[in-house]
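Archive entry. Fields below.
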Amino acid sequence: VPTSNIRNFCIIAHIDHGKSTLADKLLQMTGTVQRREMKEQFLDNMDLERERGITIKLQAARMRFIYENKPYCLNLIDTPGHVDFSYEVSRSLAACEGALLVVDASQGVEAQTLANVYLALENNLEIIPVLNKIDLPGAEPSRVSQEIEEVVGLDCSNAIHCSAKEGIGISEILSAIVQRIPPPLDTAERPLRALIFDSYYDAYRGVIVYFRVIDGTIKKGDRIVFMASDKDYFADEIGVLSPSQLQADELYAGEVGYLSASIRSVADARVGDTITHYSRRAEQSLPGYKQATPMVFCGLFPVDADQFPELRDALEKLQLNDAALEFEAESSSAMGFGFRCGFLGLLHMEIVQERLEREYNLTLITTAPSVVYRVNCINGDTVECSNPSVLPEAGKRRSIEEPFVKIEMLTPKDYIGPLMELAQSRRGEFKEMKFITENRASITYILPLAEMVGDFFDQLKSRSKGYASMDYSFVGYNESDLIKLDILINGDIVDPLATIVHKEKAYTVGRALTQKLKELIPRQLFKVPIQASIGAKVIASEALSAMRKDVLAKCYGGDITRKKKLLKKQAEGKKRMKAIGKVDVPQEAFMAVLKLE
Ligand code: GDP
Ligand code: MG
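PREDICTED_STRUCTURE:
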């Protein structure tokens, strides 16, 4: 089809507002996928995603649609639905001319919706408001329309009422895409510039790159260059996503497709990079490229020390497919050999952990996540530190800076109080509060990222009975009065339990942490002191009393099946234990610092 008959769009929505269901319906309605080949939700095709109901990796699909007897080609580019991946969202928006803004008509505008709408507006997208779930008895499309108008400043007079579930309003949406979203510019004569909006690693073909041609044309066999990494390749295969890969010979400005070129790691073809020709190089790469930087770090240690090489292998394999994942070997006196790993955020961290365990059969101990601190030393050096246990000694530091984020919480007015309390208790600095409607407010705070890592999101949900939502963005580094808190078990410092805390919180955290550890660590055959210290000074102390031997002895001599059962149970319980000195410490203990309240 001619460029004027192409439409590139994405769907932005808060989690659970119906993005995947709508995408599936659009694919069905246009005959792109037959009913029987549809898995439940075609666009979210990673198991983990399906289980958690979130979209992690982007996918794209080309649809054919006849409108007023003319054939159109509609390219849907899916976006991940979580703040950890907002850079990727921004790149897929940059690949489109328009967006469907899907809002659950029984709920309303949420923080994530807002964040993505702002990204779409920055990218000059035409936004089509879609009020979904109008089949629900509680749906209030006119109230929600008004809310979108007030909050986002978007004209909703022609918002589409839809039920993705029941298939209502789907053809109106397809027509609106053709009518309202502008076609791409026809710049096929210019030097090639294609925007990478996703890539993944395939064991047989190497990296598969998903891109939108912004200018020029790309042909099968072309010698291409990735401008940021400055690596060049031959495009062995190119094609379109229908949504399965369909080979093609040539793609023009405005089109969306994939290529493979025997690329060995996604790090060489990063999201946001520009593809150009080797011989007719574009003068300037496309704007907006950023290398994703990990914000959260933790230690990963195999429970069984023999699994260290397997863990290294698995991390290397995952990294082929995940340019944002960082790791380096780490050895800890308490934990043995493992890796210090860096992630975009907590969800990213959980996904990687879960894949390591599920797909690679590893049993891991994960230490509490830490942010990256900047330590200004007395000798004038500045060192980055993402591992509290190796923080330069107090005598060598002049000051410590930590990363701060701006968070925006959207909440029904009843929960304003509890949420402000939450933010305040996390060293939050109040910025502003706006009533976006009579009933709902937006509250903005600046707070340390370290205070958000952990259970902040869970707290926000529980304090608002699930009604509040939030979004955050990194604002910069600032000096804070921080100190290192060490934990000693049985007299030995356990380095993975060290944390960096604000001076004013040190005593409270020390007391709460020792108490929590006392609950979590099983009693041993001897008495075990658990202490918190700052430098050489012990600030809190607890003790696990000794377990009486006959508790175990009793089981012997009993009947054999019962004994076996007991031993099996013990073995399972052991799986997540790390022997530190003479004491077995369970996985939960390493996360205790996150759950102190
Ligand atoms: P996503 O997180 O935005 O991708 O949302 P999903 O498409 O996964 O939908 C979240 C939930 O809402 C699922 O249980 C869907 O079945 C349901 N859902 C989606 N669209 C509709 C709709 O139009 N009406 C109703 N009643 N439920 C819907
Ligand atoms: Mg989804």
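CURATOR_NOTE: The longest strand covers residues 397-412.
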